[in-house]
Prior knowledge:
Blueprint: H1 3-26, H2 28-40, H3 61-73, E1 78-81, E2 99-104, H4 107-117, E3 122-126, E4 139-142, H5 151-163, E5 168-174, E6 205-208, E7 215-221, H6 229-233
Helix pairs in contact: 1-2
Amino acid sequence: xxxxxxxxxxxxxxxxxxxxxxxxxxxxxxxxxxxxxxxxxxxxxxxxxxxxxxxxxxxxxxxxxxxxxxxxxxxxxxxxxxxxxxxxxxxxxxxxxxxxxxxxxxxxxxxxxxxxxxxxxxxxxxxxxxxxxxxxxxxxxxxxxxxxxxxxxxxxxxxxxxxxxxxxxxxxxxxxxxxxxxxxxxxxxxxxxxxxxxxxxxxxxxxxxxxxxxxxxxxxxxxxxxxxxxxxxxxxxx
Length: 238
């Protein structure tokens, strides 16, 4: 290992420790501050969407086209979008649903979305998906979220989806990733949820989210992810 790589590893380890301490002391307030700073400073660096380049028009072309067909096939009439971000691309998909609820931890985004996009069938709420009670829906869409959360918060959010009574989970999954490491809140790494520490079963359905074919939105039945309780106890870098 080079000196530079060692220094980078030590910095990440220190960041993770500080993040865990802040999370234990401040909880939702800490997580809200992190993502508020990211959105306020446009730190994901995209001119089209505050939610980053992955939420732009070209990046979401395939899923905007395929999601209505998936909703129809699996009887999904109500959707919880968690987190909803700035609703930039999803506004073009909600017409395929009877009810849409978008939640996000950033209050300014929620206020803006409610003011600009709110209708009788489209609503928004400020919520922490790892801690707050969530509204029931046929499915929850959790796109490009867990790539920014540490393992402990991913597990809490999954358990929260389960207890909410939501039947299906639509989750970003990177099939070509064969290793895993933990991160602080707001950092980034790609995740293959079919590998440890999560070891999800084969999805019910998958649609390509991009051009490579490796990055997908995968559909799982939430209850199936909790059949083997031991799976929730297996962890690497947790």
